[in-house]
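Slide 14.
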Amino acid sequence: MTFTTEFTSSMPQVGIGLWKIDRDKTAELVRAAIAAGYRHIDSACDYGNEIEAGQGIADAIAAGDCTREELWVTSKLWNTFHEPDRVREGLEKTLADLQLDYLDLYLVHFPIALQYVPISERYPPEWLPDPDAASPAMTPISVPLADTWRAMEALVDDGLVKRIGVCNYSTGLVHDLMSYARIKPAMLQVESHPYLTQEKLLRLASMYDLPMTAFSPLGASSYKELDMATEQENVLNAAVVTEIATKHGKSHAQVVLRWGVQRGTAVIPKTSRVERLAENIDVFDFALSDDEMAAIAGMNLNRRFNDPGVFTEAAFNRFHPIYD
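Slide 15: predicted structure.
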């Protein structure tokens, strides 16, 4: 079987994720990623580094490393822009920051609508409407997801984005979205790694011909510094991964990323280290056996690191689960 970097509608199956990349490192990292062969860049309003990401993209294009048409740039609608008359505002700010005329893919970041925060007051808006309040708390508002989706569809109609999709949706929300979407979602992006394989969600997405992107494909690595995971939960330390990595002469990360792309998802590993860029994208010159794929899938613990039902209450004084 031959594997390539082409995934769906020309989106490369391995991209660079920009969550938690320091602003002062983002432009250099994006430029280095493009020079290393990356053509898929995953960004978001909430990451707070889109200005710098845009500068990295502009520098790479100016240097002749790529053309705009060769890049796939994804960004995400933040929770405070869910009201239909705010959706375009959120996108236009992202486009300005990224120095782009259009996005290849625009995703609803969370199925969570929050109180609007004017861009002139604070950007990114983050989770709290007033962080300086005596008792600051996240403030959900009543906006049907269907209304937000119709406003997303208008962005496609107006040529501002080529495709739209969703993040952090459950199986129930995917069923519901497919029942009313005039423009069907082009991507479902969710947390997935060997400790959270999301088999039912992946199977459902396949039934709907809905491609899936796995964020945090290496598991706990991005969450340890936030005290949302422990070193013992690091999938890269698992004996199964070590055994397979040794057999193939590959790094632990390459084995886990290979598992992700071989099961049919795109992966967007985050790294702030330039030397890791080449390693993370170099996963197409080997294949895992059926037994190896099953062994890694067998590591599943249904361990979700990015869970609003946990972190919103702990950090933003509002219990707001979106998963059972």
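Speaker note: Residues 1-5 have pLDDT under 50 and may be disordered.
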